[in-house]
Design brief:
By secondary structure, the protein is of the alpha+beta class. Helix content is about 35%, strand content about 20%. Helix 5 crosses helix 9. The chain is globular. The C terminus is likely disordered.
Length: about 270
């Protein structure tokens, strides 16, 4: 592993940085397996189940953002949070972006400025109630965005379950209020396309829907994020996926400055 590093950011015993070794990537895959398969009921391949790791071909070319708790160095290398970051250069090595298996992302590929796919986001169960862990991940993403001049982030975000009728309010709200502009709008691939506008908007209580929204999607929306056209049922992961598109200006301004303010200069390095 020879990642192009970002400044390491620290808050107490937590540090966010890119994985630097194969062992650290392995630790991120172990955490992903624990969250996606042990907790959420995803269906592993035989190889994944034997290794107790979530992995695919994209892991070999991407950057892996880690939150490490140095008080837990002896447990899975201290990795308690992770995000997989795939720039256009990484996708060229892999042959495609991960999202292209579910969505037509040609509008994003045509964008003239740098783009980045976010994926495989998860946080250790014991750290999920701590806002600081997710703040650290976002601070790391913001630093990465600064370093590489990323203009647009995108990826597949998940709603729990594979029955769209049980997610009708959430899907309809997202489609009705947060549909991406056509110039940047991914569309679910033919054969995978599941309509999102399932119920009339006038029958939706926005506050009630927002309370049920998964925290990650809610976070993207707070940053002015959009969703693509159509959801995709992912039976392996036991989820219903939506494509999310986020312009990075608010990520940089809101989260990076917020982290600097809350962590304080004594907790930051680099």
């Amino acid at each position: 592993m020879h990642p192009d590093p970002i400044p390491a950011l620290k808050a107490g015993s937590l540090e966010v940085r890119l994985a630097e070794t194969a062992a650290e990537v392995d630790a991120s895959q172990v955490l992903r397996y624990q969250v996606f398969y042990d907790e959420m009921g995803a269906v592993p391949t035989t190889e994944m189940a034997e290794a107790c790791r979530d992995f695919d071909v994209f892991d070999e070319v991407c950057d892996h953002l880690l939150v490490i708790d140095h008080k837990r160095d002896g447990v899975n290398a201290g990795v308690v949070g992770t995000y997989r970051l795939m720039r256009r250069e990484h996708a060229q090595k892999a042959g495609r972006f991960y999202s292209s298996s579910e969505y037509d992302i040609r509008p994003l590929l045509a964008h003239p400025k740098p783009i980045m796919e976010l994926g495989r986001s998860c946080v250790d169960l014991a750290y999920r109630a701590r806002a600081s862990t997710m703040q650290m991940l976002w601070a790391g993403i913001a630093a990465y965005v600064f370093k590489h001049g990323i203009d647009i982030m995108f990826g597949c975000a998940s709603l729990p379950g594979t029955d769209p009728s049980k997610l009708a309010l959430l899907l309809s709200y997202l489609h009705g209020h947060h549909l991406a502009p056509e110039a940047l709008r991914p569309r679910a691939l033919p054969g995978l396309y599941t309509a999102m506008n399932l119920v009339p908007l006038d029958g939706i209580d926005p506050k009630a829907v927002q309370a049920e929204m998964p925290p990650l999607i809610k976070g993207y929306l707070r940053l002015g994020g959009f969703v693509g056209d159509g959801a995709v049922i992912d039976h392996q992961f036991n989820t219903t996926d939506v494509a999310v598109v986020v312009k990075t200006d608010l990520v940089s301004e809101k989260y990076y400055k917020h982290f600097e303010r809350t962590a304080g200069p004594s907790d930051n390095t680099g």
